[in-house]
Structure formats: C-alpha cells, structure tokens
Amino acid sequence: MTLHDLALAAARFSALIAGFVILAGFAQNSFHIWQLLVASRALRRQRGLPETSLVWRRYAEAAPPIALLVPAYNEELTIGESLRSLLALQYPSFEVVVVNDGSGDGTLQALIDTFELEPVQRSYEAIAPCAAIRGLYGSRRQPRLLVIDKENGGKADALNAAINLARAPIVCSMDADSLLEPDALLRAVRPFVEDPERVVAVGGTVRVANGCDIRFGRVSRVGVPRNFLALLQTIEYLRAFLMARLAWSEMGSLMIISGAFGLFRREAVRAVGGYTLGTVGEDMELVVKIHRHYRRERMPYRVVFVPEPVCWTEAPETLQILGRQRARWHRGALETFSKHFGMLFNPRYGRVGSVGFGYILLVDVLGPFVELAGYVLIPAFWLLGILNTEFLWAFLAVSFGFGVVISVGALALEETELRRFPDVKSLAVLMAAAVVENFGYRQINNVWRLWGAWQFLRKQESWGVMTRRGFSRAAA
Amino acid sequence: MALLTLIWLLALGMTFAALSWMSVLLAMRLWHDRRAARRAAARKSVEQALIALLLGKCDLQRDLGPFAGRARLMSECLLEFLSLVRGADRTLVLAAFDSLGVPATLRRRLTRGSAAGRRACIEALAAFPSPETEAALRQVVSSGAPQLRLAALKSIAEAGGHVPLGRVLADLKVGALPLSGLSGDFLRDRVAAEPGEAISALEDDLLPSTLRVLVLDALGSAGDYAALDILAAHVGAPDAEVRAAAVQALGRLKHPAARPHLARALQDPDSQVRAAAAEAVGDAGLDGLADDLCAGLEDAVWRVRFQAAAALRKLGAPGLQRLQHAAREASDVASRAASLALAEQGLPS
C-alpha cells in the first residue's frame, strides 16, 4: 500500500467519522427541538394555573392520603426546621415518615427533643428489603409524624423502610433537604385524582433554590443564583424538567422521577419490591422497574410529570462537587440500562423499550464515547491536514446555534407559562446564562459523563462525598 | 448555493432566532409585569370592597362596579370569599354581585377565553341559581370538554337543578365525563340524592365493573337501608373488586342484617375481599362476628390480619378481650398481630 493509498483511506475514514458525528448531533438536536414543541403544547393545555385556594376547593375532597418519606442521614442541624415545614404542608390527609438511617451525629436525639418523641409500635408488612429497624417513635404533639430509627443502609434502604411502615396508598419520596412548596402535594396529586385507575407514579418539577430567600424551610422569594455554576444549572434544570421530562411524559416514556420529589402508588412500589439496594440511580431504576412490571403484565398504567414547580433543591457550587454528582447520575443511568438491557428495542415494552431505552443507548451509553472520539480524532485529523476547517467551524456554529435555541426555548417555556422569576433583570441574567452554558459548561458535563462511565466500567459503587453548603436562611 | 454557505446560514438563522426570541420575552415580561400589577391591584380592590360591603361601608357602583365586567376576576374572588362567609353575609355578597349583573357576565364567559377562566365561571355560577344560569350550564354540558362538563353538572346540581344519575352514568360510560376521583365525588352526591336510581343502575348487567364499584361505594355512603339487598347480592359477584366494594359499603351501612353476608365475605378466596370484610365488621360494630375476626388473625396475608386486629379493636370490650387472649394464647402470627394492635392503642397485651 502506497503512502497515497494510506492518505486516501484516512481521508475516507475521517469523512465517515465526521458524517456519523454530524448525523448523530443533528438527530439529537432535532429530537430536543421536537421535545420543546411537545412540552410547549402540554404546558399550553394547562395554561392559567389556579390559585391554591381554588385547587383546594376542587381537589381536597377527592385527594387520597399521602405518606411523605424522608430519609435523614446526619441532618442534626436542619432536620427540625425541615420537618416543621413539612408538617405544615397544605394537604387534607398526610403523614410524615422520617427515617434516621444510622446517622453518626445526633439526628435522632434532635428529633426526640424537638417533637417530644416516645417509643411506639406499629404493625407493618415488609414489602421491600431494608436494614434492621432499631425502633419507632411517635409524638403526641404531632400525630402525623412517625420516626424510624434503623441501621445505616443508604437512601434506597431508608426509603424501603419508610415504604414498609407507611399506610397511605400514595407515598412521596424526597430528600431531607428538599424544600417543598406549601401546596406541593395538592398540585402533584392531581394526576392521581384525575386518572385514579391508571396513574401509578408522578414526578414533580425540581428547581434550583440557590439565590432564593429561604424562611422557615420554605422558599419565600424566588431569586437567581449569584454563583455562576448554580446559575448555569438553573437553565439546565429548566431544560431537563420543563422540556425533557414533560415531553417524555407526554410520549408515555418518562424513565426517571427525581429522588428529590416523586409520588408513587404504594401498590405499584410493592409490586416491584421497592427500591433496589446497592444502586446509585435508585430513583431511575424504580421507575424503569414499574414500567417493566406493568408492560409485562399488560396492565394499563401511566407515569406522569407535573410541570408546576413543587420542590426546590440546593445545587452544587463548585466544579468538584458538581462533577461528582454528575458522574454519579451518569453511573446510575448506565447501571439501570445494563440491568434492564433486555427491554431495549423489545416490542413487549413498547415506546419505553424503543424510544426511552433507545435514547439512553444513544445519548447516555454511546454519547460520551462518540464525544471522546470527537475530542481525539478531530485534532488528529487537523494535524494530519485531512480536516476541512471551514466545514468544522460551520458545523460547530450550527451545533452552538441549536444549543442556544434549545436553552432559550426552555427558558421561554418557564417565562410564558409559569413565570416564577421575579423581574426583567433576573430574566436577562438567565438568558445570558442560556447562551453562555453552550460554550464550555456542556463540554465539561461530557467529561463528567465519561468519568461516570469509567466508574461504571470499574464497578465503583460508592456515592462519593456530596457536600452541601446549606441554604442561607433569612433571619427569622 | 454552496453547502458551506447553507450551513452558515442555518447557524446564523438559529442564532438570530434565539436572540429575537429573547428580546420578545424581555419585552413581554415588561408588559406582563405591568399587567400583573394591575390585576393584583384589581383583585385587592375587589376583596377590600367585599369586606367593606360586610361592614356596610361599600358604595357598590363606585367600589365594585368597575370590575363587574371582568368575569374571571369576579368569579375567582367570589369563590374565595364564599369559602369564608356564611349565612346573611353570603346572601349580602351574592345580592351585590347580582345587582351589578355579574351572573350575566359569567354566563357570557362560559363559551370563550381560557379553560381555567371558564371553569372558574362555571363554579361561581352555582351561587346564582336561575333558569338562565341552568340553560347556560346545560349548554356547557352538551358541548364542553369532559372536565368542564363535570364542573357544569356539579354547578347545576349545587344550584338545585336536576341531574339524573342515569345521565351521569351514561356519560361516564362513554367517556363524555372523566372517570376520575372528582367524578367519584360527584357520583356520591348524586347517589345520596337518588339512591333508588343507583339501585336500579346496579341491576343493569351491562354496567362496567369500574362504575359498579363507584356506585356501590356511593350507596354505602348514602346510608339508605333499601340498598341492603343489592349490596348483599354483590358480595357474590365474580369480580373481586366489586365484591370488596360491596362489602365495604355494607360496613358503612351499619345494618345488623349484613352479618351473614360479611361472615361469608370473611371466608372469601380473595385476600382483598377478606381484608375489606374485616374492616366492614369493625365499621358496622358487629360484635357477633368477633370470633370470625379472631380466625382472621391467623390469615396468611398481612393485610387481612391487620384489618382483623383493627376491627377487633373497634368493637370495644368484646374485641379487646379477644385481642388480649390472642396475644397470650394464639399462634405466633396471630399473637403478634394482636399484640401490635393493642400496643398501637397503648394497651397491654
């Protein structure tokens, strides 16, 4: 083979790679634009959200009891305030089941002191596996509160313990530091009231609380984060929740309900044996298991998403912590994908197997490696002089153009249908962020996803340290 | 045109579109902020005027007149206010709205504008019963979306109009009304108003199981003893969910004649029915079935054991004695169910 033949083969190979990357990118961006349109139509259908008093008037009578499941690990300083806020939620019938998951600090004592807890007993059926329960506590002052003290087992294990003890037909999983809107349950339960026969799970919109004023465990004023990373994540959350999840829900293929806030029919959780222990993506895995069960049994069901903001969470403010979180999320997605690989393109699982799992295959499984190939090959081709730089710049410009349109679109959904950001200035800042995030932030995210893929391949199981800075609470 | 130029045009076009979109959003926000401020101010004015009305310090035309033509604003304020006032105050508020011609404004709004606004107007119109209101609401029933139809039927019933149960069931059957928790609530009200019609509906073999369950549940809540026979007949239905609903309804009816049927249900092959039967015995206070409940403490299914223990607790002294006996003497499974039921009440085993 001559040198000329080699150069020709390399040129053909580079053209092939370039063609694949361009096609994959175009398909993915077109899919996102389509999701934007689907989400927009869904939001328009629900235009003119009623005020809390009207929602109460319409739904309170028919609203089923809910058990809020609150796993707590080393939350000594904040658990009292978090629970007071939860116990004051506007909902006709609910209980709060807190799980002290073998905390090493004084979480249990703080709970005992704050709510004057006493040991109680409760009959329950172990429908999901969990570590040994050391004791149950109740309060005469707060009959809605039940505290479970158990050996440490992780979040999934703690949620399973709470599911076992809960008696309400609907369970709501959340994080101990999730901040709920006062009418969150009333708004999120609507799909269960409107379609009680089929709805088995409901995901709620989670928003970034950084930059908001927090008072007594509630967001009292919505604001824009002052931290740059948190600001970029605000746009990212809008895109993930208002655009992607709403569109997936409309397609009947919603594969994930955030662990920060999700409602499930207890019977559905029971049917799949609760959360799977020893996973890092237990929230996604539970939803996939539910899809799998109902599809296999050919039972009618729906997994729904409500776009109204119901829950606020603290976003990481440093690259190191954010990187760990994103790598863990990606590892969770890969774990779920590999565990339920048999669903991929299996006609038995309908759209969930084809579109939902197909998307995970292309974007989560292959995506990072395609990106990696791009990062390695494009400079190599350029060095070899077989890359047409004029086309490279043009395609990069199209790629950024798509990215900006999608981010601005997600912000437009928020602005036209929900309008929770307080003023024009906040909106302008967010718009700038919607443009800026396409230049660097998205690319760093891909590096973290690669890191997550690497951890998955090495079968790393730890969560890593997720340090939270804590909400800066306004003086009471 | 060269491919390269096309690609650049696409990129520039998208960037231009995004920038234009952003500019429009910012401009809209400026406009909306002013509009929202005006809306909030109007709402506050209406609320203050209503409070002044109750204090006898309101000049209707001056304070409320300017807002009388704003259907959604007036309906939402009215609904909120009516949830707070009763009796003479309520009559005063309604008379004030009536004198300003608000009901006519609300009726006109039923066929146009956003669904959320129409729904608020439908709900508010329930407070203004009249032939015109009923006609307007019936118009919505015949042509509106399922959610709006349901709201309109509710308003007609609240305003004293006749809503035949047969019509509601027929609409639910064909999907003209949504089969939801809200329609279940409405059905309960209708059945309470016309239990005889509900009994006739249950005699129809073609009634789907889902609706049958809803009607059985509603009949139990209605408390009409005439339903006893039809409920008892459903304890032997082939569908387990129907049997469970019939058993629960018998429990809520609290009639001693339900005893043999509940005793039969306690032996049902389906655990859902056995659990429902145990609960029903407790609800009906049938202490003659206390020994049957004790047998339920040995059931293989946790929910049945739990309901049997809870029912024994509800029976009072005869049940508690049996629970204490079971806690001491029965098998491990029954003893644990009994002990926990007692412990939950803070009682010794």
TrEMBL record, chain A:
SUPFAM superfamilies: Nucleotide-diphospho-sugar transferases
Organism expressing this protein natively: Phenylobacterium deserti
Superkingdom in the source lineage: Bacteria
Name listed for the protein in its UniProt record: Glycosyltransferase family 2 protein
Gene3D superfamilies: Spore Coat Polysaccharide Biosynthesis Protein SpsA, Chain A (3.90.550.10)
Gene Ontology MF term list: glycosyltransferase activity
Transmembrane segments: 6-27, 357-385, 391-413
InterPro entries given in the database record: Nucleotide-diphossugar_trans (IPR029044)
Xref: Pfam families: Glyco_tranf_2_3
Family listed: Belongs to the glycosyltransferase 2 family.
Keywords assigned by UniProt, alphabetized: Glycosyltransferase, Membrane, Transferase, Transmembrane, Transmembrane helix
Automatic annotation (TrEMBL), chain B:
UniProt xrefs under Gene3D superfamilies: Leucine-rich Repeat Variant
Superkingdom of this protein's organism: Bacteria
Molecular function terms, GO-annotated: oxidoreductase activity
Classification via InterPro entries: ARM-like, ARM-type_fold, PBS_lyase_HEAT
Descriptive protein name: HEAT repeat domain-containing protein
Organism name: Phenylobacterium deserti
